[in-house]
Amino acid sequence: MILHGYFRSSAAWRVRIALHLKGLTVENRYQHLRTGQQLSPEYMAVNPQGLVPSLILDDGTVLTQSLAICEYLDEQYPEPALLPSDPIARARVRAFAQVIACDIHPVQNLRVLKNLQARGQTQDDTQSWARDVISSGFDALETLVNSQSRPFAFGENPTLADICLVPQLVNARRFGADTSGWTRLLEAEAACNALPCFADALPERQPDAE
Amino acid sequence: MILHGYFRSSAAWRVRIALHLKGLTVENRYQHLRTGQQLSPEYMAVNPQGLVPSLILDDGTVLTQSLAICEYLDEQYPEPALLPSDPIARARVRAFAQVIACDIHPVQNLRVLKNLQARGQTQDDTQSWARDVISSGFDALETLVNSQSRPFAFGENPTLADICLVPQLVNARRFGADTSGWTRLLEAEAACNALPCFADALPERQPDAE
Prior knowledge:
The structure is a homodimer.
Chain A: E1 2-5, H1 10-22, E2 27-30, H2 41-46, E3 54-56, E4 62-64, H3 66-76, H4 87-104, H5 110-118, H6 123-145, H7 160-174, H8 183-193, H9 196-199
Parallel strand pairs in A: 1-2
Antiparallel strand pairs in A: 1-3, 3-4
Helix pairs in contact in A: 1-3, 1-7, 4-6, 4-7, 7-8
């Protein structure tokens, strides 16, 4: 399999973690998002959104969208599971992941912040935009997990929720959010980063890191 | 089950369609998003994001996030299926749904547009913001389905992709997007709206419609 990614992309990072958790190795290719490489005709033919990640299977099938890719990997390589077996628990883990993947990350990603700057917003404006979106989202996430068992977001094993949490917490810090109130989320993050499959997926450990 | 929604919310609309497809009836409650009713302490105790939809199961369990709710309904009430049985096809349907639910809708929803206005953007500015996000997203969606069988987005039966498509096309028109190039998507929309389970979920047919 071939993974098109970018070291700093949260969405590509999620798939890196999932692949590591499943013990799968892939050939990595990189699309440099800051130089616009992902908008080249060659890559747009792979992924018509011009986004990373894209996972190319051995038969050439292209899969896009990080959560859809993670669910595919979980169906094809069931162990260790990224989702609990109980239907309610599965719904909660998916909802947690979607708070990040739908309501936080896309509203603070590079594309949106560039668009804000093109509309006359300053660097400070875009930082506060991102920080506000992240902070309100994380306040909700902290509430969603505070009755769940520890140390991960949903119990004793990492799930799709943790896969989304870890990259988004790094974004939170990059934009200056005050993370101190999110004690349960920080505990989950620490549990994740103690595992090699999470640590090896960190942006600074990727070959394309700058 | 109790569904907290709002007639014009795309996300609540998705769940209405899924419930109708499954033949499930629920008690409806409404959160008026324009007056900020969803941010009341009572509703925030139900859904800490202050968003619709929320689905409350008969035992009081609260489920949030429209795609997570749809997947739960699909697991609990398998017929008719919202996702194909083939793993690749499932991944494609989920990816299509996520293009809308992650990359289009959250970047053009009421909360974001209000935030833009609070930062000095005019009504015209916010309209063009929404239109641009929707147009680039739909161009990608048209490519993603143009080799799929008809008439629905992915074949002979409606899926989670169509559930997300129909509300987002209404948003596209509301913001003045030129839909004429999306012939395959419009064909899927027409096939959907010919079905009572889609037609009955239209915003204007909801009791809270204004």
